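User: structure tokens for this one?
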Amino acid sequence: MTEPLTIIGNYISPYVRKVLVCLDVKGIPYRIDPIAPFVGDDAFSRLSPLRRIPVLIDGDLVLNDSTVICEYLQDRFPTPSLYPADPVQRAQARWLEEYADSYLGDVVIWRMFFQKGVRRFLFNEGTDEDVVRKARDEELPVALDYLEARLPEEGWIFGELSIADISVASFFRNAAFVKYQVDPQRWPRVAAFVGRALALPAFARLAAFEDRTLRTPLPEQRAVLSEMGAPLTATTCGNAAPRYGVMRLG
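Assistant:
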């Protein structure tokens, strides 16, 4: 590979985080245009017709959707593998990735993080506290009960770190952004698993960029990240006025 890959997408997105962790674990160099999809310009719309992040650019190839991107990275850079070799476990890993992307994405991102953060600070709209309450008290516990029965007491779901571990953990980082912590008394396996995963170097290296992004107004984020040494692209697609789009999930 002669040039670093390009990733378009904000550090605080769990879908972007999933891809960046995979890149880190595999030792693949990249540059990032850390935009939120809400401020993507016309060039972003051409690259991402659903106006979702992340986007991967590898030469002439443009890929959308975090799952598609991670599978491409696995196919092109097969070691270390992030998908179990056993076909049954591989299918199970893909299902857990989908479960995280779909159910946790809906509950943690759209019903909690979007309501408490993006909707208030980017669009100046009020938080629907009933939506947040139902997500926190009713819908997220359903996922935690499901995961508690499937996560190991120690280590990783399929023995070695896999896309399933990375996907599940990525969403609980965003849950923490809205001050939600998994109750270790009720869900001890989930709480321990999340702690192990987020302590991995690949997650930890992103944490400083995520924290500063979260505390910085959107128009100032690129400059702040540049000062921190983030591997930024030379140009950005993130200069448009905030707008909604077809961007649910990633």
